[in-house]
Amino acid sequence: MIDRRLRVVLAEDSVVLRDGMVELLEVRGCEVVATAGTADGLLAAVAEHRPDVAVVDIRMPPTHTDEGIRAAVEIRGRMPEVGILVFSQHVETVWASRLLAGGASGVGYLLKERVARTSEFVDALHRVADGGTALDPEVVDRLMRGGRRSRVEALTPREREVLELMAQGHSNRSIAGLLVVSERAVEKHVAAVFTKFDLRATDADNRRVKAVLAYLADEG
Predict the structure, then answer these.
(1) Rounded to whole angstroms, how far apart are CA atoms 11 and 68?
(2) How far apart are CA 123 and CA 108, in angstroms?
(3) Using one digit for the tens of pLDDT, what is the confidence trace for 105-129?
(4) Which Pfam families does this entry report, sorted A to Z (predicted)?
């Protein structure tokens, strides 16, 4: 059961949507310490309050293109301890790759129209605040299609399914349930992914995160 009160900064340029989200989050036990309608306002609010997680829309004033996710990348660089949950109608693969370039720990990217229940959104917030990952399957698919394909193409269809579910934050047990296979079978698929991506075990590294990031394109 989730009982920790999260401190959240919410960036959304639509006043109606922003106010509605504040009410929903507070009912669910979160503390919205600040809201922002612009990227500059978001940066200032995060610097002042140092929240557990910042919820960020991609398109914000003045141009309504990519100001929000640019700010998210800046926050990631300046204050990596702050979780980032991008919540948008759009998939920006270039900026999403940059957001994930330093590691997927503490990063989420959900599409507004695909979140069916408030509880799902709040669960994702907690996961990101705790250093986990919450990526919508459509975001994962777009990143995979836009990224380095050589490693991904070496995977079997089942290994790719397992990798996509890993990227969404699922444990081996959860993946086993979703794919209706044994947990041991999932472990073998995960090990195969690590091998094909040349990811060796170390005490410090999170190979699950590295496996998700290994094929994302953001070198240019």
Answers:
(1) 8
(2) 11
(3) 899 999 998 888 889 999 999 999 9
(4) GerE, Response_reg
Distance CA 220, CA 114 (A): 31
Is 78 strand, coil or helix? helix
pLDDT tens digits for range 93-102 = 778 888 888 7
122 and 59 in a common domain: yes
Cα 137 to Cα 135: distance, rounded to the nearest angstrom: 6
135's tokens: 């990526």
Q: Please, what is the Cα angle at 173 between 168 and 176, to 5 degrees?
A: 85
**Placement of tokens 């472990």 in the chain:** 187
Residues 131 and 161 in one domain: no
Residue 49 belongs to a domain with what CATH number? Answer: 3.40.50.2300
